[in-house]
Structure formats: structure tokens, C-alpha cells
Amino acid sequence: MSQNILAQFMAELMSGRIRVVDLTETLTPEFPTIVLPPEFGQAWPFRIEEISRYDERGPAWYWNNFSCSEHTGTHFDAPAHWVTGKDQPDNTVDTIPVEAFIASACVIDCSAESRDNPDFLLTIDFVKKWEERHGRIPARSWVLMRTDWSKRAKPADYLNLQEDGAHSPGPDAEVVPWLIKERDVHGFGTESVGTDAGQAQHLDPPYPCHYYMHGNNRYGLQCMTNLDQLPPTGAVIFSAPLKIRSGSGSPLRVLALAPKA
Ligand SMILES: O=C(O)C(=O)c1ccccc1S
Ligand SMILES: [Mn+2]
Predict the structure, then answer these.
(1) Strand, helix or coil at 23?
(2) Which parts form a coiled-coil structure per UniProt (predicted)?
(3) In this structure, what are the phi and psi dihedrals at residue 202, rounded to the nearest 5 degrees?
(4) What is the CA(43)–ligand 1 centre distance, in A?
């Protein structure tokens, strides 16, 4: 039976009736990484160095060395990333069950609100209004917060750092536990540099998305793009991080399968 279904799936994919949407930013040395207060360790930006390019260093091949943080660019957050998730089972990128890397997605469009207010916070009421139009969020779905933040091409606009830190949208401290308890969501995804809002250090608890999602053995995706190309419901997300031993996360290629518009 499943063989038949997979053959039908490939026929739909090859026909174009299923679209593949790339939700990944290009890794470049210029792509911004999260900036924490100076007393804390910082994420490495993406660095790349050519080893050879069909030349005397390697006549028939082109390759590079690269380095970056586990949390550079479009990346996956494992539960071990946050102290609340440190004792969760299978909480690192190499131990998370691989079935978790394929899941449905609900896309909540907050782009207008985020354009008008960089500190916009997604609330329970906003999600309930979304559900009135698009139906209840299915269990084990990703909730992807569309803010169109990825359209901010300049790193300075993307990080949006002011004297008191970053200003970018995210979920409030009530909606995250509600999504977990009442909707059993798989994880939370954003277009900005973190799954939490730029001013989330002032929420209670600080960084509520990290605090609750990872504390409940759920996952995060951030620095996503092209969420405006996805339907509110019906997309399937492929998000397999690098299999880093005891890794807290990793850059990855995030792809969505969506019905032809
Ligand atoms: O997961 C991340 O990349 C992230 O947003 C983060 C990383 C470390 C500390 C705080 C935050 S808020
Ligand atoms: Mn992260």
C-alpha cells in the first residue's frame, strides 16, 4: 500500500501539482547572526575559505572549508539548546527521532502587524482568530510565524538593533505554553534571527519560545524565508539538521511541499 502511495506522491511531484518551496536563506559571511549582550559568548558568522578551484592546489576539483555556529543562518533548534530542555530525552540533533524532521505546517500571517510594529507579539487571541478562518491547528504541526522579516535585505534592518537591544517580532509568553498544551504543536518557526522576539529577554519567562518549546521537547526553526509562498495550512516541512554529535542545533536546508497554488 505505502509503495503505491509513494509512487503516486512522486507522480504528483513530477507533474508540478505539488510544489517544492525553499524556505532557506543563503549562507554568506554577511548574513547576520544573533547578537547577545557583550558579557555572553557569541555565535560565529558563516566563514568560507577556498581550498582549490581546478588549479595547482587541486587540478580537477573545487572545494572550500567553512565554519559557523550551530545557530547561524536558517537553522534548527534542538531541545538541548535551552536549559529547560537539557534533561529531555533525545534532545540533541543527533538523537531526535528522524520522524520529527518531516511535519505539517500552519502559517500565521503577521506581516502587516510586524510591518507596523517591529515589536509585535503573537497572542492567543490572534491565533484563535486565525483558527476561525483556517481551522484548528492540527496536533504535531509546526506553527510558522510569517512576518516578512526576511524581506529586510540589509543586515542592520534585519537585526534592528537599538540602544536597548534588538526589536523584532515573536510570540508572547502566553501563546507558547497554550500552543503546546492546547494544540500539541511540533515546534515554532520564524523569519527573524531567533524564535523569540528581539525584546524577549524582558518577557516572563525570558525567551518564552525557547523556554517552553524546548522545555517540552519541541523544536525551533529560525531565519526562514518565503513563508509568503506557503498556504495557511496544508504544507509539509522537511527540516533535517546536520547530525552533529550532542549538537544543540544546526544550519540546514528547509524545504516545504505545498499544493500547486
Ligand atoms: O536559538 C537561537 O539562535 C537564539 O535565538 C538564541 C541563542 C542563544 C541565546 C539566546 C537566543 S534567543
Ligand atoms: Mn537557534
Answers:
(1) coil
(2) none
(3) -95, -5
(4) 9
What's the whole-number average pLDDT of the chain? 97
Is residue 83 in contact with ligand 1, taking CB distance under 6 Å? no
DSSP string of 27-47? --TTS------TTS--PPPPE
Distance CA 138, CA 154 (A): 35
Q: Is the distance from the beta carbon of residue 70 to the nearest atom of ligand 1 less than 6 Å?
A: no
CA distance 114 to 116: 5
Complete edge-to-edge strand list for the sheet that includes strand 187-190 = 18-22, 255-259, 235-238, 102-109, 142-146, 187-190, 219-222, 75-77, 249-251
In this prediction the ipTM stands at 0.95
Q: What's the mean pLDDT in 141-147?
A: 99
Mutational test site, ligand 1, from 44, 46, 70, 71, max ligand atoms within 8 Å of CB: 71
15-41+69-257 has CATH 3.40.50.2300 classification: no
Give the distance (Å) from ligand 2 centre to CA of residue 200: 14
- Residue 81 alpha carbon, nearest atom of ligand 1: 1
Whether residue 169 is preceded by a cis peptide bond, meaning omega within 30 degrees of 0, is no
Ligand number, closest to the Cα atom of 210:
1
Phi, psi of 39 (to 5 degrees): -75, -10
Angle between helices 124-134 and 175-183 (to 10 degrees): 40
* Residue-wise pLDDT tens digits, 190-229: 999 999 999 999 999 999 999 999 999 999 999 999 999 9
Residue 112 alpha carbon to ligand 2 centre in Å: 25
Which ligand approaches the C-alpha of residue 37 most closely? 1
Query: Which atom in ligand 1 lies closest to the alpha carbon of residue 40?
Result: 9
Residues with CB in 5 Å of ion ligand 2:
71, 77
